[in-house]
Amino acid sequence: MKVCIAGAAGAFGMKHLEAISAIEDAEVTSVVGVDAAKMEAFAAEHGIPHHTTDLAESLARSDVDCVILATPTQLHAAQVMQCLEAGKHVQTEIPMADKIEDARRIVEMQKKTGLVAMVGHTRRFNPSHQWLHNKIQAGELKVLQMDVQTYFFRRTNTNAKGEPRSWTDHLLWHHACHTVDLFQYQTGETASQVQALQGPPHPELGIAMDMSIGMKVPSGAICTLSLSFNNDGPFGTFFRYICDNGTYVARYDDLEDGHGNPVDLSGVAVSFNGIELQDREFFSAIRERREPIASLSRCFPAMQTLDRIEQCLAAAG
Question: Which spans in 27-159 are helix H?
Answer without folding.
Answer: 36-46, 55-59, 76-85, 100-113, 127-137
